[in-house]
What we know:
Shape of chain A: globular
Strand content of chain A: 15-25%
CATH topology of the largest domain in chain A: Dihydrodipicolinate Reductase, domain 2
Largest interface: A-B, 38 and 38 residues
Radius of gyration of chain A: 21 Å
CATH superfamily of the largest domain in chain A: Dihydrodipicolinate Reductase, domain 2
CATH class of the largest domain in chain A: Alpha Beta
Oligomer: homodimer
CATH architecture of the largest domain in chain A: 2-Layer Sandwich
Amino acid sequence: xxxxxxxxxxxxxxxxxxxxxxxxxxxxxxxxxxxxxxxxxxxxxxxxxxxxxxxxxxxxxxxxxxxxxxxxxxxxxxxxxxxxxxxxxxxxxxxxxxxxxxxxxxxxxxxxxxxxxxxxxxxxxxxxxxxxxxxxxxxxxxxxxxxxxxxxxxxxxxxxxxxxxxxxxxxxxxxxxxxxxxxxxxxxxxxxxxxxxxxxxxxxxxxxxxxxxxxxxxxxxxxxxxxxxxxxxxxxxxxxxxxxxxxxxxxxxxxxxxxxxxxxxxxxxxxxxxxxxxxxxxxxxxxxxxxxxxxxxxxxxxxxxxxxxxxxxxxxxxxxxxxxxxxxxxxxxxxxxxxxxxxxxxxxxxxxxxxxxxxxxxxxxxxxxxxxxxxxxxx
Amino acid sequence: xxxxxxxxxxxxxxxxxxxxxxxxxxxxxxxxxxxxxxxxxxxxxxxxxxxxxxxxxxxxxxxxxxxxxxxxxxxxxxxxxxxxxxxxxxxxxxxxxxxxxxxxxxxxxxxxxxxxxxxxxxxxxxxxxxxxxxxxxxxxxxxxxxxxxxxxxxxxxxxxxxxxxxxxxxxxxxxxxxxxxxxxxxxxxxxxxxxxxxxxxxxxxxxxxxxxxxxxxxxxxxxxxxxxxxxxxxxxxxxxxxxxxxxxxxxxxxxxxxxxxxxxxxxxxxxxxxxxxxxxxxxxxxxxxxxxxxxxxxxxxxxxxxxxxxxxxxxxxxxxxxxxxxxxxxxxxxxxxxxxxxxxxxxxxxxxxxxxxxxxxxxxxxxxxxxxxxxxxxx
Lengths: 379, 379
């Protein structure tokens, strides 16, 4: 890891020179001393769908350590609008064909892949090969094998990798982690999370197309519920069982509508989750020996809300989760600070996803898991 | 059923005569016109454990339609204390051997069996044979076969039967039923309930002894979670799967520690529950197409609390659930009003309990259920 840090530092020095020519995009903080640590890193968003448009790009406007430097889109009509709205030079605009030439563009430090799930692996690997740090939107991919390929490509290219797990940078999530870690309410015995919404939109959307999504509610929202079971206990599950429910097969033709899963944790806690594209559910409940912790809403863009059994509220000023997430990753690149959502975390969750699908195929059988501390980040 | 009502009415007339000699126990309401409908019915508690002592007897003090008329105990030392505290005449005190002679005691209208689960069937049947109306504490018994035997005994003796499901008379529960029935938040799509507490007490308590309890968390608390899944959707499940978790086998030697179950309902809703003797959990979440309903706490003695997705609270003045439950049953006997917890309801829940244990034995397999509207009370 030392060599990666050195490489990153050298990169930063090199880009700092360019930075002086692009001050509008890369403000140098006042009082900056040695080095270029406060230079904002340039992010290119790959895929300009609703998440990029509604969350990532607006989040970057106020980010401290990174900014929206470029776009990669398959829809030429979007180019002009985005260039104007975010002051993006033409030189930083790519399509899916010429994307690999981004390697030559030193204004781009990070490539954030926000494409349909089945395209994550290809574009993350191409980004790594172009020498760019990579953020891969969740779910990391549609198989564990693809996660491995992404991780390997990033390691081989000596670039940093994180998964678009915005919750890992959210203060509500981190407050739960703190309360669990410090055993404020004793030992965790039971955790329950729901991550669901009701989908009634365009039946041709990519999320309902297995070839593009790789799965339904479990891949889209279920990874949040898996994550909150894990940060709610502070440990990885040692087994999982699961069930699938279908009530609107005409709409959910190819992808899972509702999945429930149950997990056992090594510290004696048990957990369950429900994820659905046909229900509301946005909750986390962490039950401890001496009390409980609750978030509701828990997995949405905020403002979130929480409370504990002692009658206190969990409350923080609202900030863009996406801004916090990308700033955390930029700082990780710049200073070697914690990577709150490393590739191993995305891979671990995909291992659990595959075990859940296996359990469903095998009629609800309990599937043992041997994850150790994979993907557990103890900040 | 007509004949039962007639018989009950005749009984009441007969007992009204006695009532005048026992005004201290059976106050006649002012303004009472024809008949003896406002005479309080006499209840005998069978088993003077903590639930009788802490909940049922105090609940009866303020009941409007019934009162604590007698006791049946296997502990002679308790007799004097109870007689004094509740002004119970010696003639209304029985032990388990002479219990059947209660048939000759017209001061006792209702026998409430509050013994360990495996003793419910025997004493409910003996009570029915003695010509007394019966309240059987939950769970109704330790098998469906025993439920059938109790129901048959009560039908044969022409006496009324209800299960000690206090929640069915609770205003919070009934508010959820109303909101579900009136589709205030649209159609129910998902329901989740927890009914759990952490048991660390005397390892020799009867609840941990399978011969007396018939099972662990599922029989004790799980029936509440089953009930709230059912009243949360307004329908019986059409299938169930389940898992058992054990983390403290030294303490839970013979009985289930934690069980999770998943259900499908005929109206398209899905449900899950967790019941445990090793976790806190006292919640109901009903997720509908246009909003949600939540109770927390949900299954305890109150005061309960609830809220809905529109920001409103569910709130009622606190009353003893047990008082409401016994008054509802007394009114059912006196006037033919709704029996909110009939024997069929207890039997239905035991069918689900047996299916849950079957699913666990069969590795989490989904067990189909063919319950129709069994035990559903639409008031």
